[in-house]
Specification:
Blueprint lengths: L2 H12 L4 H24 L10 H28 L5 E3 L4 E2 L2 H37 L9 H14 L3 E8 L1 H9 L1 H18 L5 E6 L2 E7 L3 H16 L2 E3 L2 E3 L3 E8 L6 H18 L3 E3 L4 H21 L2 E10 L5 E12 L3 E3 L1 H8 L4 H22 L5 E5 L10 H11 L7 E6 L8 H12 L3 E7 L6 H6 L2 E6 L11 H17 L2 E4 L5 H10 L3 E2 L10 H10 L7
């Protein structure tokens, strides 16, 4: 707990004595009243200034017990210094009625005023505590309040689960459309969580765009089951200023006391489980001991990537594409390979998820663009007019320098229109905003073609394709692998081809591994294909040899 929280809690408890503490304070107040009464009488009566000490005791009563203390002590003081207390003990002269009544009224006013001041002060303390423990945008409890709730939960329940959700949409929405849109999405998410969660579960905004959900009396597996059951409801499109936003939620879960004894441990382990979901392609995961070494490994991998990129250990490999109609060579897709000194050759799926959460992804994209075009230029200089395709991340579209980088590369390598293709995975189209689409249109104006990769596996709708300047659609290998014999795959591929014809887009089938599959694609009019049947990805030197020896008439 923070120092501020400790001070606020202690001040509030100090104003609310109870039990033995309250009894002790009342005893002290009564003792002070008795001592003061004896002092007033012993020092000559109420003619002296001694009765003013009663005011201090009255204020102490109001300070500790508010109205009951202030008014109660005021009445006792008024009676003790009232009709039975002489004005002058030496002569025996008694006070007039108006004298002691006015004094009693003064005591009462002091007690009431003191109680009002303390009450107002207490309200301010409560307001400060509410402010300190609440998020000012969503009005949800914040991390400091979570600490209190967690302590209470662990006292009352034998187990609890902490769920940490994360959505990629927040940063993109705020960066492209403005902070106001991002805050509205936060409010929408907070509202949906509150409506969806069980009554005794608590949604907390930890920081920035990171939420947490505390589920008392729930095991980790039960929390995972709940997320799986409610996932469609939690993640359906949000409406932000009449703009539909898909948040792409992932959830990490950690259970108390199984995965940590403290709240800090649970937050850390739930976050590690969250990171594991993206690597494993899942939307929810329960913390495992394997997640911690994975996080450490990823941290080290990012540092090693930066070093090895500078050292030239990352190389573009090239996989050929053919025109299905006549087997002629159409071009190549550039696929990065990392020759790690200890781990051997790493493929993109082993390190790209790590890089995508860092600025290193921008460095990789720029490297792959420049390196791939350098090899493409070598092919062209030898008379091979081919197309080169390079993958970029959806997060690259947040790079304000992307357009200028592409413009410079197109100029530097004198790239003809249609010779460079940028591939964007369909699942990342959910991150697109009007600004992203506008950037892609500017890029298309440079003569660079836009391709939608892995089509059919993400959450994109035809509405995305309507607005994107995409001229190429790549059918994911999932629907191509058993195409010759699977009627459902055939129906899906047929639907994509029909859609592409209407959009005047070229279709590329990925993962072609059998002659039967290639023949089927030829029969239904698919324009291009790539896969192991044609060739595996190969390093630059082998690529040049492969181009020189390739004979379309030989077939496969």
């Amino acid at each position: 707990m923070s120092i501020t929280a400790i001070i606020i809690n202690n001040i509030q408890r100090w104003h609310r004595p109870s039990g033995l503490t309250a009894a002790a304070i009342w005893t002290l107040l009564l003792a002070l009243l008795a001592i003061t009464t004896a002092a007033v009488y012993g020092l000559g009566g109420t003619r002296q200034s001694t009765p003013h000490i009663y005011y201090l005791i009255v204020l102490l009563g109001s300070f500790f017990f508010r109205y009951a203390g202030g008014i109660g002590v005021a009445i006792l003081a008024g009676l003790l210094a009232g009709p039975f207390m002489p004005l002058d003990t030496a002569s025996g002269q008694m006070q007039s009625t108006i004298n002691w009544l006015l004094r009693a009224a003064g005591f009462f006013t002091a007690g009431l005023s003191g109680a009002l001041i303390v009450h107002f002060y207490e309200l301010q303390i409560r307001a400060l505590k509410d402010y300190f423990y609440s998020d000012w945008i969503t009005d949800l409890p914040n991390r400091f309040r979570l600490e209190e709730i967690f302590r209470q939960t662990t006292k009352e329940h034998a187990t609890a689960a902490l769920i940490v959700p994360d959505a990629r949409a927040f940063a993109n929405l705020a960066n492209t459309l403005g902070l106001g849109h991002g805050e509205e999405l936060l409010l929408s998410v907070a509202s949906r969580f509150k409506k969806t969660l069980p009554d005794d579960w608590t949604t907390i905004r930890l920081y920035s765009d990171r939420f947490a959900i505390l589920a008392p009396g729930v095991s980790g597996l039960q929390a995972v089951d709940w997320v799986q059951e409610r996932y469609p409801e939690l993640t359906r499109n949000f409406e932000v200023r009449e703009t539909p936003v898909y948040a792409d939620f992932h959830f990490g879960v950690a259970a108390w006391p199984r995965d940590g004894a403290t709240l800090f441990d649970l937050i850390l382990n739930a976050t590690l489980a969250l990171d594991a979901t993206r690597e494993a392609g899942r939307f929810v995961a329960l913390y495992s001991e394997d997640d911690r070494p994975r996080a450490s490994r990823n941290f080290q991998l990012a540092a090693e990537f930066s070093r090895d990129l500078d050292a030239g250990r990352l190389t573009p490999y090239f996989q050929p594409r053919i025109c299905v109609a006549d087997n002629s060579l159409s071009g190549f897709e550039a696929l990065v390979r990392w020759e790690h000194e200890r781990r051997g050759r790493l493929t993109p799926d082993q390190f790209i998820p790590v890089l995508e959460s860092t600025m290193l992804m921008r460095r990789l994209t720029e490297y792959m663009l420049r390196s791939s075009l350098a090899h493409w230029q070598t092919w062209r200089d030898r008379g091979h007019e081919l197309r080169i395709a390079v993958n970029i991340s959806g997060r690259d579209l947040l790079n304000p320098e992307l357009y200028s980088i592409l413009s410079e590369l197109v100029s530097e390598f004198a790239v003809p229109a249609g010779s460079l293709e940028l591939e964007i995975t369909e699942s990342e189209m959910i991150l697109f905003s009007d600004a992203s689409v506008a950037l892609l249109k500017r890029i298309a104006d440079l003569g660079i073609e836009i391709a939608v990769d892995d089509f059919g596996t993400g959450h994109a709708s035809h509405a995305y394709l309507k607005h994107l300047p995409a001229k190429v659609i790549k059918i994911d290998r999932l629907f191509v692998q058993f195409l010759a014999s699977d009627e459902k795959d055939q129906a899906i591929v047929g639907g994509v081809l029909d859609l592409a014809r209407r959009l005047k887009a070229t279709v590329i089938a990925e993962g072609v591994e059998t002659r039967e599959g290639l023949e089927y694609l030829r029969g239904v009019g698919c324009q291009k294909a790539q896969g192991y049947l044609i060739a595996r990805p190969m390093p630059p030197a082998e690529t040049l040899e492969w181009i020189a020896s390739y004979d379309p008439s030989r077939g496969f």
